[in-house]
Structures are given as C-alpha cells and as structure tokens.
TrEMBL record:
Keywords: Calcium, Metal-binding, Repeat. This is EF-hand calcium-binding domain-containing protein 1-like. The keyword Metal-binding applies. Residues 64-99, 100-135, 145-180 form the EF-hand domain. It comes from Odobenus rosmarus divergens (Pacific walrus). The keyword Metal-binding applies. SUPFAM superfamilies: EF-hand.
C-alpha cells in the first residue's frame, strides 16, 4: 500500500473509531494488508475471508470454538459480503480489544443470536452450550443435562418470560452479574492475548516509514 493511499485510509477510519490513535489505526492497516497478502485470498474485494480470519482468531487470540469463531467473523463483517475489509477490521478490533463495557455487551449479544433475528432462542442456547461444554457422558445424558442448563439460563435471563432472550434481557442480566457477559462461550479475547496482539500490531509505530 503506498503512502498516499494509507494516509487517506487512516484519516477516513480515524474519524469513525474512538478507541485507537491515528498512529495505531495506521499500524492496524499495515498489519491487515500484510495478513491479507499472506493469506493469499482470492476475493473480488481486498480483505480476509472466513478461513483466514478464523486462523487469526485461533493463532493470535487463542479461540478454538468453531461456532463462535464463525459468529465473531459475522459480527466483524458488517456489510455481510463474507469478507472483512480494512474498515471492518479496525472497527471490529476497536471493540474486540478496547471496547467499553456497553460496546462489548452489544458485541457478545450479536455473536450469540445465531440466526440474525435479534433474539437468542432456546435452541440457540442449547447449541452454544453443547458446543462449549466438554462432555464426558453419553450424548443422551449430555443433552438432558444441557436442557436443564438451558432452563436455568432462561429462568435467570428471560425477564419477560417469552422463551427467548432479547437484548434488553441480556443487558439487564449482565449488568446485574457481569460474569454472564460470555455465558454462552468465549467470544472476546483474554487480556494476555490482547497485550500480545497489540505488541505485534503497534510495534510498527516506531519503525513505520509512514509515521503520522
């Protein structure tokens, strides 16, 4: 990416992202460009496809849950074109790495409602819990145990008793007990992984030839 194009993109994205300085946005764009080229993805648009992004979530952020990695991809991919572009990369990382509690609350809820209808259904809760829990017993016994967990979860979080969890339900429950933020599986990076990623990304600040 040439200096003029980079500067232009940095200015454009910096105006819409509050959690990164301009120099940090620049570093994230340089890293993005490098990751896309390394992935050698053949797309109509320049960006990261689902497999390339999942590889980053796994290798850098230590995520292993297939369902949730896919959902994190879709949470980043705001225009639903199955490709994460430069703006989506920076804006997604803004929440992923340095989001406020409210931003992370919205992000987690978006990851958890799998069918895109704005509610977390009983079936979705079952699937996510089953996917997240390591089961030692038989599948039949496991399913019964998970159904009990689903009932307990809905009793705790479904405040309007409509059999599903709305954002208002989720927000109220998590604000009362913050440990519920990632109740259906880890979709945010651990602090240690964030530190490692920022060291990787922002190490370019002092060495970049495009210093702001």
């Amino acid at each position: 990416m040439d200096q003029k194009t980079l500067k232009k993109l940095v200015e454009s994205i910096s105006n819409t992202v509050k959690n990164f300085k301009k120099s940090e946005v620049e570093c994230l764009l340089i890293l993005f460009h490098s990751l896309v080229e390394r992935a050698n993805v053949r797309l109509n648009n320049f960006g990261l496809d689902r497999n390339a992004f999942r590889a980053i979530l796994h290798s850098i952020f230590g995520m292993t849950n297939d369902i949730l990695m896919n959902r994190v991809f879709f949470a980043f991919d705001k225009d639903n074109d199955n490709c994460i572009n430069a703006k989506e990369w920076v804006k997604g990382l803004s929440v992923f790495l340095r989001g406020t509690f409210e931003e992370k609350l919205k992000f987690c809820f978006e990851v958890y409602y799998l069918n895109g209808d704005g509610y977390i259904s009983r079936e979705e809760i079952f699937d996510m819990l089953k996917n997240s829990l390591c089961q030692q017993s038989s599948e039949e016994e496991s399913d019964e145990g998970i159904k009990e967990l689903v009932d307990i979860t809905l009793k705790k979080m479904d405040y309007d008793n409509d059999g599903k969890i709305s954002f208002a339900d989720f927000e109220k429950a998590v604000k009362e007990e913050r440990l519920l933020l990632e109740v259906f599986g880890p979709c945010l990076p651990e602090a240690e992984n964030c530190i490692d990623f920022e060291a990787l990304a922002f190490g370019h600040i002092l060495t970049s030839s495009f210093g702001m």
